[in-house]
Every structure is written in structure tokens, then in C-alpha cells.
């Protein structure tokens, strides 16, 4: 039945072969096409080698396979007769597209760019037995079901957001989340770096932002902030996983931590106390003071210099303590500052009340499909409708964590909408993608993140990646359920939704 080139001592049980066949139809996000080759299996053995034209992508794959299989998995300098080949060449569908072929003698992933090879490897991981993602050596065997997958993303922006301001998450916790979301081909991580309750990034020209403004968190929990080196470590870790960091400094509201650190940023010159509650809309930078724009220019300048990605997010949400005319003047001027530092402005959709630049990327967080202001602004939009994508909303009344203001969001609610058609007045071609925000007023640990993000984050990742023609709840609840054992192997403390067909 199996390839003859494998070492004679290795046999694959019928149940392992059956499991492999299931895996071919259980990839999340669903690929554009996946055609199994009946009876064909490649078996990873002690003889398997890896060749890669994107060195970092090949190294990562080999490292993981060594860890779980215990095989040597050498990196070789030419496509091996028995092994995994990651090759640059021409495939349809752009930088992130890939084609994956599994035959009896090996796996070949073909892509235009390293990003496509990375995506193909994430698919390959899901074709392997779950144990391949383990951190320690597992028994095997290691069959890969035969066939061909042709794949490319629906949207170029497939994001997650982590609020590190309400609660601070150290570098290791962010890297853990990056590892988890990369498996689902998420390619942007938006870091909400400042809010009323904490300032989380070192700024040399305004050092009290981090040292004082970063000292608190919601509920009096420990604060913290990233040094510049740590922020760059996160960026590099993300880049190795095809993920671009989008830093956010929220303004003019959500700024109590900055105002508490520097009283000159308030209109009366008096610094308010640090804040550890969860109200919104009570703070504002003083938009009529020139020092405010010096502050913004220096903060944005330092952050832009550290950030290789194209976007710098200026927040702009819930500025209830800023007069409308002041808000407009402030946002318009800040857009110029961001542009002067070479970055593209991103903002919560409140910024359409100002004059968004033609290039400003608008992040929609409402839940009104009939709204018009965002839809007619003529700008590209990232869809984060709160009633569908907010990972801090409870699944149901009994969910121990989270909030309810945007509704209860079970997995079926997170999955059951079309990002291209949610806003009825928004031309579908203006949708750049989807982002799943995780606000952390009630989220304090990596296990809390796991529980709120899984399984909804993979559902939203599928909406962002897969052709809408694959959208089918009945099939999805099976495919998503098949991910559960992998999450256990990876140590993800996911929510066992009763809506999902767990194996
Ligand atoms: C609204 S949505 C906020 C955040 C809160 C979140 C809690 C948005 C742009 N702002 O400040 O953390 O609700 O769910």
C-alpha cells in the first residue's frame, strides 16, 4: 500500500491511513482546491530531508519535525529524492499563493515568494498527524496523505489584535499568540500599545510614558512595557511567521496613562491620577496646545523608526471628551505627522468624522450593516464588526471571561457572515480584509487568550483567507473540530463549544 522507499520496520496502521485521508479535507482555512490522490501516501521517516529556497521557512519546518519525530531531518542543498522540497517558481495568485503536491516520494511546495512557501508549510502541518506539532518526541508513524492543493488568499489583510494596554502581556506571551495565529495564515498582528490604563512601549524623548504610565493595568494588576529591543524582537519573531506588526498609539482619547505621565499634555496642565478601571471616553490630549503635536511627532517618529511594516494605527475611537471640531483638526494634523514619518495611517472608523487621507485604512468596529458614513468614505476598510469579530465578547451567558456589550458570540456567529457584504453600502472591492480584536479588560493570562481566541480566531481567519464559495457551516464545524486534538498537542486551552463536531 505504502511507498516502498521507507524503512522496512515502519508500518502504517489502517486507522492512521484513514486519519490521514480525513486530514486532507480538514484544512483550516479551507484551501481554494484540494484534490486527494487515492491510495497515495508519503511517509516521513529517518530518511526524510528538507530542501528550501526560502532558508528560514525550511529551517522552521525541519526544526519542528526534528522535535516531534526525533528524526535528523537534514537541510540539503538540492531537492531530495525522499523528502520535502520548498521551491520558488511561478504559481497563480500572488505573493502568498502556493501549490502543494504530495506523492509517494515526497512533498513539493511551490510559491512565488517565501510568504507563499510559509503558507504552504502551514497547510502541510495540518496534513501531518497532530503529534507532529508536539514539543517532544512522539511515536509516529508520520504519513502525509497524497494529492494536490492549490491555494491563495481572498484578502491581503488577515489580522488579529491584542490589547496589551488594559493588561500587559510580556514578549513570550505575544510570541505564543504569534505561533498560534500563524498556523491559520493570519498575516497582521495589531498591537494596541496605549490606553487609559497603561502605556506599553519605551519612548526615549518621553521616558515617563513607559516608566510611570506603564506601571499600572486594569484592576491594579501588574503593569509593564516593552523596551525598544523587545518590541523589535516581537517584530522579528512575527516576520519569521509572515506576520507584520501594526502598532497602535490611541489618540486623542484613551490617553489617561500619557496624561498622568506628563501634565503638560492636559489643557489645565494638571496630571490626572493613574487609572485602573474600565470606563472609556473620559480622557483627551489637549488638541489646542502646540506641545501636543510635538509629543505626537516624537512618539510617532520613534515608533515609525522601529517599525518596518507600512501601517501606523492612530486609534481615534471613542473620543467622547474631545469636541467634534477639535477631534477633526487633531486627526487631520496627526495624519500629516504619520505620513511625514513614512507610514500609512490606520484608524478606527471614527476617523471618518475627520478627513481621512485617500490612503488611510479604516477599521470598522461597529455592527450596523446599514451605516453609510464609513461605507461612502471611499477608503479601504478592514472589517472588525464587533458583534462578529470581538474576541472579548462572551460565547454565552456562562462564559467566565469577557464582556457582552456587542452581544454573545458563539462560533457560528463568528463564522456566519460575509466580510465582502456585511456593510450593504460598501463596495466589496474596498474591503481589504478582516481583523479579530482581543480587548483585555477581563483577559489576564495566556490561557485566557487561548480560551477567547480558540476556536473563534480560526473561524475568522477562514473568512479572511478562503473563497466565499467554500463557506458552509456544516462542513466547517467538522473541519474546525478536527483541529481540537492539534490544539491539545500545542497546549492551547480552547473553549469546547457544543456547536463544534469535536472528534
Ligand atoms: C470598545 S472598539 C473599545 C475598546 C474597549 C472595547 C471592549 C473600540 C475601538 N474601543 O476601548 O476595550 O470596546 O470591548
Automatic annotation (TrEMBL):
Domain Glycoside hydrolase family 20 catalytic: 155-467
PANTHER family reported in the protein's UniProt record: BETA-HEXOSAMINIDASE (PTHR22600), BETA-N-ACETYLHEXOSAMINIDASE (PTHR22600:SF57)
Domain of life according to the entry: Bacteria
Entry EC no(s): 3.2.1.52
Gene3D superfamilies reported for this sequence: Chitobiase/beta-hexosaminidase domain 2-like, Glycosidases
UniProt key word Ligase: no
Record domain Beta-hexosaminidase bacterial type N-terminal: where: 27-151
Leading EC class: hydrolase
Pfam family membership, one: Glyco_hydro_20b
Stated family: Belongs to the glycosyl hydrolase 20 family.
Coiled-coil residue windows: none
Descriptive protein name: beta-N-acetylhexosaminidase
Keywords for this protein: Glycosidase, Hydrolase, Signal
Source organism (scientific name): Nonomuraea spiralis
Reaction equations catalysed: Hydrolysis of terminal non-reducing N-acetyl-D-hexosamine residues in N-acetyl-beta-D-hexosaminides
Keyword check for S-adenosyl-L-methionine: no
